[in-house]
Amino acid sequence: MNKLTQEQQQLILDFYFRCGEQDDIERGRDLIASNHEASRLYANLEMSLTDLDHIKYEPCPDNLADLTIARLKLAAKCTTSSNSRLHQLLEQQREVPLPSAQSARAISHPKKNFFRPAFEILATAASITLIAGILFPSFVSLRRHAQQNTCAYNQGQISKAFSSLASNDGALASTRVQAGSPWWKIGDQGSETQSNTRYPFHLVKQGYIDGRMFVCPGDKQAKCLTDTPAHLGQLNDFPSRSNISYSFILWHDKNSNPFTGSRRIIAGDLNPVFRKILFQQNTYRQRDEFEQVLLDEELKKILSDNHRCRGQNILYSDGSIEFTKSRIINGDDIFTIHGVDIYIGREIPASVLDTFLTP
């Protein structure tokens, strides 16, 4: 397998951080989509930098510079006597006869780095601290921006896949949820539709899109779908909840096709209301509803976990994507059903104007 050239690696970095020319960013995107090595490098890059999101950044205090200088002066005073004693010992050592000229040279020229004064070490540490205080927030912000853009790119690919399948409405219609049936059983492979993720999975099963596009880089619990086409062809839904980190408009038998007509919201980052629902198969095989979810004040306000509750990308039926820091759009909460405060997993919106992205 051919290794990536330095230019190709740079294109991947340009796409990841969105910091190069637009043409290079697009070339990097196409390279990742078409080259296995590029895709693996991108995945490793994402995995390697993920842990930085868990580091809590604390801003440097205003008086850090003054404190550092004061401590350096104190360290210098404290080391004066010890340095003087050190020089005395070195002088005494030089007076001791040596067995050879080589040994004499070794002792008469001690390594300066070994006896570096403490204040020099402190000065280096202070410099690193100051630089980190300046660069770390910028790096975190850059990473968040890259994740947001990659997420938007994924949703754009999903939109294109839906557009490609728009003419085949019959295939999608068979995946609609029947009113009153469960819409949350992700991973159920039975003949009856009991998951709202079946119709987006149809895009993967039919080869319209790579299953990895359904994972937001900000979703730390997600796992890319890497099953072979032969295995995917035997499935009716995503194998696991972890394989999909986007929520889609609930498409049921009493709702019109969300991909036709006026501009509508059809997908977005993961719905935070049902994030803690257990999606294990041994749970939903025993019942058709989950434990009641009561909307409290926190659940009414929290934003998607995909972007650390700072907002979510929203995909519209016309292919446009917007990042919003509110879940209320045109007076409608996109993550809940109007007038419903208790959920068990079988609710449906009352009208076409009531957007409900789930699960």
Task: Please sum up the structure shown.
This protein has 359 residues and is α+β, with helices and mostly antiparallel strands. It is built from eleven helices and nine strands.
Structure description:
By secondary structure, this protein is an alpha+beta fold. The protein has a domain at 167-358. It has eleven helices and nine strands. The protein has helices at residues 6-17, 22-34, 36-50, 64-95, 101-108, 118-165, 169-173, 198-205, 229-232, 281-284, 297-301; strands spanning 246-249, 265-269, 293-294, 312-316, 321-324, 328-329, 332-333, 342-343, 357-358. The strands form three sheets. Strands 5-4-2-1-9 form a five-stranded antiparallel beta sheet, with helices on one face. α2 (22-34) crosses α3 and α4 (64-95) packs across α6 (118-165).
- Using DSSP, what is the number of strands? 9
Shape: globular
Q: Supply the number of helical segments.
A: 11
Flag low-confidence runs. Answer: none
Radius of gyration: 29 Å
Strand order of the largest sheet: 5-4-2-1-9
Percentage of residues in DSSP E strands: 5-15%
Q: What is the CA–CA distance across the termini?
A: 40 Å
How does the major sheet shape up? 5 strands, antiparallel
Reconstruct the topology from this structure.
Elements lengths: L5 H12 L4 H13 L1 H15 L13 H32 L5 H8 L9 H48 L3 H5 L24 H8 L23 H4 L13 E4 L15 E5 L11 H4 L8 E2 L2 H5 L10 E5 L4 E4 L3 E2 L2 E2 L8 E2 L13 E2 L1
Antiparallel strand pairs: 1-2, 1-9, 2-4, 3-8, 4-5, 6-7
Helix pairs in contact: 1-2, 1-3, 2-3, 4-6
Features:
two-stranded antiparallel ribbon, alpha+beta, 359 residues, 11 helices
